[in-house]
Amino acid sequence: MDRRLTKPLVLAMVAVALVLGVLLGVSTGIADRIFGGPSPKTIASASLESMRAQNRLIAFVARYVSVTTSTTTTFGLSAKRTLILPGDVRYELDLSKLQPGDVTWDAGSKTLSVKLPEVEIAGPDVDLTSAQEYGEGGVLSALTNADQQLDSANRAKAVADLRKQAQGQVQMRLAHQAARAAIERSFAMPLVAAGFKDAKVVARFPTEGADEASYLDLSTPYEQAIQEAERRRAAEAKK
Predict the structure, then answer these.
(1) Same domain assignment for residues 31 and 43
(2) Rounded to 5, what percent of the chain is helix, strand, coil?
(3) Can you tell me whether residue 37 is helix, strand or coil?
(4) Is residue 55 helix, strand or coil?
(5) Do 171 and 100 fall within a single domain?
(6) Coil, strand or helix: which one is 208?
(7) pLDDT range class, residue 201, cuts 50, 70, 90
(8) Which residues pair with 146 in a beta bridge?
(9) In a shared domain, residues 182 and 232
(10) Is the domain of 109 the same as that of 207?
């Protein structure tokens, strides 16, 4: 066999083997160990994909109580009903909205910056089992369905009031703080575990620094909130 043909063939085989070896090392993590471990960008990308797979993060849950009163007058007769209604509101992040461009690494300051999607308010999940309804109906309540109408009006106003309470500046600030802390912790833990103990993670919302915190309102419609609460109460009664 001609040795002038053998040498190029051997070099080509070695080159192919090196390429395959690098590809195998990248896919199995061997390359990371040989070349000093994974980079912060690689770790951040893996963390990002992991969080996107979780879909939603409940960053904060708060319970509010609404007290509403409705009155009606017919033919000089009056009726009044008061409702005390508690409900839970969730402050969530849609992690599927996080994109690679929202996560950037600054090697100089060793800082990973994360741009967060807006907080979404979900609920309220009203608690009819703890609700209290009372009032004064007298003759009007006895002769008409005034009580039922007032109760319905109170429930609608109570659900709207619970949403309004949930959107207060203090509540939104607490929700933003909880969401930032959760995301920063989720990105920081893998970095620290990989040896980047000096790395910092800073999560921010697009409206950070604005006078009012922004959010997306995913509140449950009044009728649906009451129907879901009645279903839960019926299910609990069967237990």
Answers:
(1) no
(2) 50, 30, 20
(3) coil
(4) coil
(5) yes
(6) coil
(7) very high
(8) none
(9) yes
(10) yes
